Amino acid sequence: MSSATLFDGAWRLSPAYWHRQGSLDGGLTVTPVFDLPDGRSICWVHRWREQVSHWAVCRVAEVITEAGHGISVRNHEFADDPAEVWLYGTSLATLLEVALDNGGDIVSLRSGRLADLLHSRPAGES
Predict the structure, then answer these.
(1) 111 vs 55, 89, 95, 115, CA distance in Å?
(2) Which distant-in-sequence residues (6+ apart) come within 8 Å of 86 by Cβ?
(3) pTM of the model
(4) Secondary structure of 16-79 in the HEC alphabet?
(5) Per-residue pLDDT tens listing for the chain (126 residues)
């Protein structure tokens, strides 16, 4: 499968999303899973050392850097203000259920801001 869409193409799943990860302070990684028409993505936000992940709608932008000798390196970085990014819970099943029941609208799942998650301590740290 090269891609899949939901909601008349409003959500686009790409099988190559792992290559588009961006990182944030606090050990968080942001991985786009569904691309939206406005340039944002529904992203999986996680700390590798923890068992809990969150869902957010945000931008992860491609950045191309010259490495010298005509070689370019393609990286991705988080591109939004964390204070402006909403979290939508921890369950993909719940996110999809609400989206399917509401034509792709997941606003009822808003559970906090990404900035709050950034300021929380990873499990095991004091």
Answers:
(1) 10, 6, 12, 12
(2) 56, 57, 110, 111, 112, 113, 114
(3) 0.78
(4) CHHHHCEEEHHHEEEEEEEECCCCCEEEEEEECCCCCEEEEEECEEEEEEEEECCEEEEEEEEC
(5) 567 777 877 787 765 655 666 767 767 888 888 888 998 889 988 877 777 789 999 988 877 777 777 776 666 777 888 899 999 999 999 999 999 999 989 999 999 998 888 777 555 554
8 A C-beta contact, residue 2 and residue 15: yes
Calculate the CA 12 to chain-centre distance: 13
CA distances from 112 to 16, 19, 80, 124 (A): 28, 27, 15, 22
What is the rounded distance in angstroms from the CA atom of residue 23 to the CA atom of residue 88? 19
